[in-house]
Amino acid sequence: MPLSTIYREQGYVLLEQALPAELIEEHVFRLDEVYRQHGIESYTALIDRRSDKTRFQALLRAVQELHNDEPGLQLTMHPGLREPIAEVLQGDPIRVSALSQLWGSEATPHADTSIVWRGPWQTACRAWCALEDIHPEAGPLFLYPKTHLTTGDTYRDEVLSADPKFIDVLGELGQGQLRGDEFHLRAKPLFEAARDLIAARVADLQRVSFPIRRGDVVVFSFQTIHGGEPIIDKSRRRRAMIMDWHLGSTEDFLMNAYWGETYDHRCEENRLEKDPVQVTTLGSYATPDLSVGDELYLRPVKRCESVGLATPRAGYERGAPSYPRIRL
Predict the structure, then answer these.
(1) 55: pLDDT confidence band, cut at 50, 70 and 90?
(2) Which is the most buried residue in 81, 161, 191, 295, by most CB within 10 A?
(3) What is the mean pLDDT of the chain?
(4) What global pTM score does this model have?
(5) What's the 3-state SS for the chain?
(6) Which has more confidence, 174 or 41?
């Protein structure tokens, strides 16, 4: 069965031994060195560093730089990965961002569209690459097959329908006036409501966990519900690289621009600017800040004057584009 068919039906595909060992070994050596230079050699030290936003962001930027020089590009743009992703997306893929980690996230079930809306969903994917053999006690990636077509697509409308007060919160976030801690204070209840609803929807579903081998890659939709298993043995590392891939037609908007079909406020003013940085002649560009979650909230977002952000768009017809199509 073609990879594109599996991806569209299941919401993910597993690529076995997509990346070569020698390139992974060099990347891991450099990755470990960056963490050492920043004084982080244990999971506990990483958690402590997250409380220091400035130093944590400096670590993330240093890690991201590893993916954009020649050794990093040889790994991230390797044909063993890029060609299957081209088949999955049915087009010429663009690597938008890349970030590597030493430990598991223990993330609760979620869809990546909680932060950024990317679409149409068939034109974008995330690639989770194992940089070592992933031990079951190190917090492997897990996901729920086919949820990209169910909960991952509907949870935003469900949250607003269940508790209309979040409509006003969403409108306030959409003004682009909130920053840093103030944004998080207002957004936290909305994100928590989405988290709780997703958890309830997938509670009885069978999930797939990935204690996979070095060089294996899980490619999944931004709408697919996924997370990180608990880290049972904190001494174990879970080295992995996460990349976002798009087609040229993919459109990105801040999460407050789209919270379901009823509250669809995508327009030029709240579209994410990619600001491409040409890194090689390989046809790739990187936008490092897209991988740094907090920085997404700090981007200036103008009010979309043509649409009241706290009210539904008038004349919306289900199944039809409800915003001006923007070609990149």
Answers:
(1) very high
(2) 81
(3) 80
(4) 0.82
(5) CCHHHHHHHHCEEEECCCCCHHHHHHHHHHHHHHHHHCCCCCHHHHHHHHCCHHHHHHHHHHHHHCCCCHHHHHHHCCHHHHHHHHHHHCCCCEEEEEEEECCCCCCCCECHHHCEEEECHHHEEEEEEECCCCCCCECCEEECCCHHHCHHHHHHHHHHHHCCHHHHHHHHHCCCCCCHHHHHHHHHHHHHHHHHHHHHHHCCCCCEEECCCCCCEEEECCCCCEEECCECCCCCCCCEEEEEEECCCCEEEEHHHECCCCCECCCHHHECCCCCEECCCCCCEECHHHHCHHHHHHCCCCCCCCCCCCCCCCCCCCCCCCCCCCCC
(6) 41
